[in-house]
Amino acid sequence: MESPIPILIGVETEYGIHVERSEGEGEPDVVADSIALVRCASEPGVWMVWDYSAEDPHRDARGFHVDQLRQDTDEAAYVDQDARRELSYVEVKSDLALSNGGRFYNDHAHPEFCTPECATPGELAQQDRAGEWLVRNCARTLGGKLGRPVRIYKNNTDFQGHSYGCHENYLLPRALPWEKLARAMQAFLVTRQIYAGAGKFGWEAEDRFLESHFQISQRADFFSELQSVDTMQRRPLINTRDEPHANPSLYRRFHVILGDANMSPFATRLKVGATALVLEAAARAPDLDWPVLEHPLEAVRSISRDPDFAWKVRCERNRFASALEVQSWYLEMAGRWCNTAESWKTALMSDWAQVMKDLAEDPFRCRHRLDWPAKLHWIRRFQRDEGLSDSDPWLRSLDLQYHLLDPAEGLFAALESSGEMEAGEPDEASARALRSPPAITRAAVRGKLIEKFPARVLAAQWDHVLLEGKAGVVRVDLTDLFAPDDISRYLQRIEAARAVDDLRGLDD
Fold it and tell me: How many CB atoms lie under 10 A from the CB of residue 492?
């Protein structure tokens, strides 16, 4: 077997925020609430130095540059609204570049935490959990200042047809052509929800609530295109944004927007780990006979809304009849084509296989590990005990409570503390993770620069850091920094540096 293909993983999570107010106080300013919450962060980092000039969401992986996105109108409206505030654009964003190599900022009306680049799904789940800890602490601090409860939800909907994202990022070799990458991943992402869905008591469409039924995914209602560079309107199954934040001739970033925010760390690890393995298989064997769904846009909703959990699909040439069969085929291909010398891969495939078996026999066998079976089991039990109908709004209230990041009130938190859900990292480990970037990715270099020279950081981005030296600006280029030996060499130089100017020539 050839050497493993390193694939870096990151997740961006937008959180829902609610500041309790009494009647008569007028409409809440959710943007102001989100800004105030982000600014409550006390973790080590550098404020308001994020380099937006390096971002271009209009570049399309299919080989062209679009003049305008559908969401540009929304973005312009946000900018117009924000111009009336007594804050600059940068102050509205309130970016905090963290010493773990991650990012925390206000994304319109949502606090957003971006994990640093991680080398394994286990690292990613740990960093995702650290983000929850950070946001929860900020809510507690803001609540203390305001003298009223501030609630944070790690979910993807407001039950009124508005969805916010949990986007995944996978950095992989550009040698895998886009057309073959997209073909390999479409059926996988559409069917992945059977274990990665967070569950929802409601069916929605854009800007409206439809009906009171359960479905296994929070986001399945909001996709209407096969491929597109847009992310906020007419969302696509395959997002074509071509913004690698790395050497564009060698790398591409596969930006996945078809996915839920998971409360269960097991589900988070399985979701990103299985995706990384399928990407590695696609990079090794791009011409495999990948499954092709006949109607993928219909399938993403029909799978999610199937009350019998049969998850039937129609594939070309009648190859597969269900989402379970499609996922089992991807699991087999991962085992055949991925280098499994790394221990996390064998563990991940074992968990993936067990989940497939349990879902086939009885989905509720997964209720201690996966979000949607856990949510459905406990809320249905409450519904029976209270004699509630499916349309009772109490069910949606309990759905929200599952995602509430409050150990005293959150339903997932209660299930975890009682042993009903597989536990994630304790708070102490999350606090450490916010100060400890993944050791063998370039996030360690970014984080070390922020930790050691916070007052000298002029700008930060995923692929570079600019620092103020006595003899001028020092640019630390992270564009091609992926080899562990090079990362180690950078870290030794930064550790030994007594001043920013000692870092000149670091890239040589």
Answer: 10
Tell me, yes or no, if 60 is annotated catalytic.
no
Distance CA 477, CA 465 (A): 7
Contact indicator for 310, 322 with CB cutoff of 8 Å: yes
So what's the pLDDT on residue 1?
63
Number of C-beta neighbours around residue 158 at 10 A: 15
Of residues 56, 67, 82, 107, which has the active-site annotation? 107
Rounded Cα gap, residues 179 and 167, in angstroms: 21
**Residue 77: per-residue pLDDT:** 79
Residue spans of the chain under pLDDT 50:
none
Residue 180 C-alpha from the chain's centroid: 23
Cα 50 to Cα 296: distance, rounded to the nearest angstrom: 37
Q: Tell me the C-alpha to C-alpha distance, in Å, between residue 408 and each of 199, 265, 401, 402.
A: 22, 19, 11, 12
Report the number of secondary-structure helices (H) and strands (E) in the chain. Answer: 16, 18
Number of other residues whose CB lies within 10 A of the CB of residue 180: 16
Length of the chain as a residue count? 508
10 Å CB burial of residue 360 (0-12, 13-18, 19+) is middle
Are 307 and 199 spatial neighbours (Cβ–Cβ below 8 Å)? no
Widest CA span in the chain: 73
Name the helix (H) or strand (E) containing 152: strand 150-153
Radius of gyration, alpha carbons of the chain: 22
Q: Are 10 and 117 in contact (CB under 8 A)?
A: yes
d(CA 309, CA 235): 25
Tell me if 268 sits within 8 A of 124, measured CB to CB.
yes
Query: Whole-angstrom Cα distance, residue 204 to residue 211?
Result: 7
Give yes or no for a contact between 241 and 61, defined as CB atoms under 8 angstroms apart: yes
Q: Which pair of structure tokens corresponds to residue 99?
A: 């010493």
- pLDDT, residue 69, reads 81
Look up residue 205 and give its two tokens: 């469409």
Task: For residue 384, count other CB atoms closer than 10 A to its CB.
Answer: 9
Please give the pLDDT value at position 22: 87
Read off the amino acid at residue 177. P
Q: The dihedral of CA 241, 246, 248, 253: what is its sign?
A: negative
Let me know if 118 is exposed, middle or buried by CB neighbors in 10 A (0-12, 13-18, 19+): buried
CA 291 to centroid of chain Cα atoms: 25
* Token code pair at residue 198: 């967070």
For residues 192 and 274, is the Cβ–Cβ distance under 8 A? Answer: yes
Structure tokens at 21: 């107010």
Terminal CA-CA length for the chain: 33
- The pLDDT score that the predictor gives to residue 248 is 96
Q: For residues 89 and 418, what is the distance between their CA atoms, to the nearest angstrom? A: 44
Do 175 and 283 form a contact (C-beta atoms < 8 A)?
A: yes
Q: Which of 373, 389, 385, 398 is nearest to 211 (CA)?
A: 389
CA 80 to chain centre: 28
